[in-house]
Amino acid sequence: MRAVIQRAKYASVTIEGTVKSKIDLGLLVLLGIEPSDTKEDIEWLSRKIVNMRIFNDEQGVMNKSVVEVDGDIIVVSQFTLYASTKKGNRPSYIKAAKPDIAIPLYEQFVEAVGLATRKVIGTGEFGADMKVELLNDGPVTIIIDSKRKE
User: Fold this and answer.
1) What is the pLDDT of residue 150?
2) From the candidates 6, 55, 59, 78, which is the catalytic residue?
3) Checking CA distances to 63, which of 6, 95, 101, 111 falls within 20 to 30 Å?
4) What is d(CA 143, CA 49) in angstroms, rounded to the nearest whole number?
5) Does 117 participate in catalysis according to the annotation?
6) Which of the four CATH numbers 3.40.1260.10, 3.50.80.10, 2.60.120.260, 3.30.420.40 does domain 2-145 have?
7) Is 85 one of the catalytic residues?
8) What is the percentage of the chain residues whose pLDDT exceeds 90?
9) What is the per-residue pLDDT for 149?
10) Where are the alpha helices (DSSP H) in 1-150?
11) Which residue from 1, 16, 19 is spatially nearest to 113, judged by alpha carbons?
12) Catalytic annotation on 6?
């Protein structure tokens, strides 16, 4: 699994003109899934994201997690995170999991994040044409890959 984590002052997901999810302070997580991902990837990545200390403490130092600042999270599935740009100018997405594999893993990931934060997690809609809006705070943007553990 690959995630792009963005610290947000505001984020939303709109589908066909209707806001599906919206948060103020928190995280917007773009999640890419590959066919070899497992429950272990879900557990490691969800725990890492929820506990990542990227919010400022009272001294202005990034020392608090999204849980500690009572922030919210939106998780959006994004197969393009597995784009291969090695050949030519048209990206290949063959490394991304197909929907029959990706959808259950995405749903399990959202559930794991919800259990860890004890909050309802905002989502997009798998396969939909989504408009994702973000006011990135900092900006703070971190990329994590569960296979490389970084």
Assistant:
1) 75
2) 78
3) 111
4) 10
5) no
6) 3.50.80.10
7) no
8) 94
9) 85
10) 39-51, 99-117
11) 1
12) no
